[in-house]
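Internal tracking record. Fields below are filled automatically when a chain is submitted to the structure queue. Please do not edit lines marked as system-generated. If the sequence contains nonstandard residues, flag them in the REMARKS field before resubmitting.
Queue: standard
Priority: normal
Entity type: single polypeptide chain
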Amino acid sequence: MWNRKGLLITPNPDIHWMSHYVGPTFIENCGNDQLILNITGRDGNNHSRIGRAHAVVKDKDVVIEKIEPDPIFDIGEIGQFDESGVSYPWIHESGDSKLMYYVGWVSGGIARFQNYTGLAISEDGGKNYRRYKKVPILDRTESEPYGSGSCAVYVRDGKLEMMYTAFEPWGMRHGRMQPSYNIKLAHSVHGLEWERKGEIAVDFEDSSEYVIGKPMPLYDEGVHKLWYSYRGESYRIGYAESLDGSLYQRKDDIAGLDVADNGWDSQMVEYSFVFRNGPDLFMVYNGNDFGRTGLGLAVQC
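SYSTEM-GENERATED OUTPUT FOLLOWS
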């Protein structure tokens, strides 16, 4: 069960990269209760960028101390796979480098947008990031021709593994063309090139669902835990567990998150990031309208 603590950050018209949305976030726990939030923000032109906020954990709560005025990672060049935005950061430390996996997207077309997974690298502790390639690291293939989305990268059994959002055929749902996607596994030696075999980590529960994405794996208290966003009519945050970290069993009712009775997260909840600080387990997440209402916090109770 989760105790909702309310909104952490709301869109701010005085900070251009997050003037209209405060979206999916990756949190770096720096020790001594200090946090860095790597945040997807959107401006008035619907362009997304990745910026940063600094926070501290106090008395089972998170207090925002500073939001940097400029993004740390900007949109790509016109015509490239991330010309409309960069979003959904996931940071993996590799030696002295930080690898930031992200979603680049292009707006337009019959399907409204296309998503692909890219990679940026920092050699100065995360102050600056450069693109590893001008093309996605998870591009379309014959077996996965619809694109890729948010991911999580971690070490399992001494090897690098990625959970990533794999797009499936689009279809007409709820009166408009909607994407479908699921969470699959990929494997790598150095985190730069990835091998995909179509392995599914967690699957749809029934025919009413058509979206499972934004993986949030955490090896915690001897258990492989996984939070994710799933969708039927609207988004909810699901939860699953695994004995070996490969195939997960859904247990949404144990540690997932449903909508609130009223307020900023009463219509949908999605895009969770879960972290432990001392004895406490925290979740930051988005609510109504994918981040237009802001970024909120819950603590496990």
